[in-house]
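pasting for ref
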Amino acid sequence: MHHSHHCKLYHKDSPINCLNFKKLANSGFYDKTLFHHSVPKFLIQGGDILTRNHDVDDDGFGGPGWVVNAEFSNLTHSRGTLSMIRSKNDPNSAGSQFFISLSDNKKLDGKYTIIGDLIEGDHVLSRIEKIPSEYKQALLLCRIAIPDNENPDNWIEIDLSLIHISEPTRRTPSSYAVFCLK
């Protein structure tokens, strides 16, 4: 399958990080990896080799086995900017994970190495942005009560108050329980 280049890399501003990214891309490291984290209007994260397995809990922890130093520049984070992810405490810890900004993220300037920009594919960003989170998808499969013609043994009651709900809800505690198919 032929992939055309949809992003331009800033070799002058971040030569080491761009080379690292190209090396990973050309070697097939990124093949079949997923965007494992998406925050609408903020950013989407990808580049983790552990997203290839079926264990969601380790997503976000994978890397190539080496790290590269930060290369901060005067470039600014805006929609379509491609930047390297690093650990919170160590700027010189970028590996393979990257993020694409979905809006102007000026507060990230000078804290993350910007390696490029998407030159096409904004429609793809928009589609990824609209995909509901696993939490929202799970809720879509739930019912407030078990349907009459269903066998109750096939359903499980879930207490939503135990699940972290990111959007503040105005519900009474009693309406937190929902039923999902086992």
